[in-house]
Amino acid sequence: MSDGHGPTPETPSGWSAEQPPPYSAPPASPWTAPGAQQQQTPYGQPYGDQPAYAPGSQTPYPSQPQPGYGYMPPAPALRPGIIPLRPLGLGDILDGTIKLIRSNPKAVLGLSAVAALLVAVPLAIGQAFVFSAMGSALRDPSVPPDQLTSVYGVVAQYGGSLVSYAVQFVVVTLLTGVLTRILGRAVFGGNITAGEAWQLVKGRIPALFGVVGLMAVIMLVPMVVFVLLIVVVSLNVSDSGGVGLVLGLTVLFVIGYIAYYLFFRTRFAFASPAVVLEGKGPIEAMRRSWHLVSGDFWRVLGIMLLTSLLVGIVAAIVSVPFTIAGMVFGMLGAGTAVNAVVSAVLIALGATLGAMFTYPFEAGVAGLLYADRRMRSEAFDLVLQTAAIEQQRQGWVHASADELWHPSNSAGS
């Protein structure tokens, strides 16, 4: 008879059946099917794809994959500057654009403010004249608004707009080039002054104007064709049926032209960055942009439309109060020089503040979309990462970083 301490045939290890030895197998789980075998760890715990249950609940937790032994999460992408050096999402592009403005506010916002002011002044003068004439007509309705119908009135109304558009053509083109060069250095974490950026960009100005000029021709051709078509229709159709036909053609043209504009605006969105950062000519830059957009047209279009919507809302919030104040001053103090000047100043100030954020934001999004497309289609992120590691080792961003944007440096080329 055993005292419970010696080995027995039933318990050869010396432990009784009532007192199981340590690390022995636990009793079978009530949730295991009869006859099913469980693999055991060295400590008697089951492993494998076993369901887990909440205490006191009959419902199992959802099965979640667990990382294996030695699992290491992927290292975050290098971010020496305004963006991580990997393909970018929408949040990365918007955040990078904001960081571009914040990292170099004097150059970015200062240049944008000057450009916006030059564009806004001619338009503000014309609008102030119109508001003054409207105020005179409201105070004395019996007097015809000769100020609006006279030669000087027509020149003030439309001349200001034409001059503003001409100035915008020149100023915004130059601003886009300078901001793109600043962005190219900011991707690596380097800062560059407005003067330094201008010295790097001024040799590319003719090519930039070439791109803008070609884009203007592409956008104006359908309008010229439409005007000629309307003239032909008006000359060959009777008055009774001509009005309805002209209205129908106008509606169809507007719908078609919107699609036409968005298509070519998206296809050539990266032409300016290609001119400034890659040193290409106008036609080559437009071909380069067309190639980069291919395969991701709808994403590029969507981001550009969203950007236009966002900056439009911000610009309206900033500029509308000044525009309303200028209109009120112009209409209430019609005929006085002081009120006309105050009205023009308020309108110009509102337009300047709105465009001061609109110009750099749109240029920044276009530049970062360009970088994203190169990283996705040409593995350009590998080039940027290699350069960033070397710059971190040296402790500064050399001006030669600008040369990395040349397409010959792309890993996929």
Automatic annotation (TrEMBL):
Ranges annotated as biased composition (Pro residues): 19-29
Extent of Low complexity compositional bias: 30-72
Entry keyword set: Membrane, Transmembrane, Transmembrane helix
Membrane-traversing stretches: 108-131, 162-184, 205-235, 241-263, 297-318, 324-349
Domain DUF7847: 91-357
Ranges in a coiled coil: none
InterPro entries in the cross-refs: DUF7847 (IPR057169)
Domain of life of the source: Bacteria
Chain intervals for the UniProt region annotation (Disordered): 1-73
Range of residues in the leader sequence: none
Protein name from the UniProt record: Glycerophosphoryl diester phosphodiesterase family protein
The organism of origin for this protein: Nonomuraea polychroma
High-level lineage: Bacteria, Bacillati, Actinomycetota, Actinomycetes, Streptosporangiales
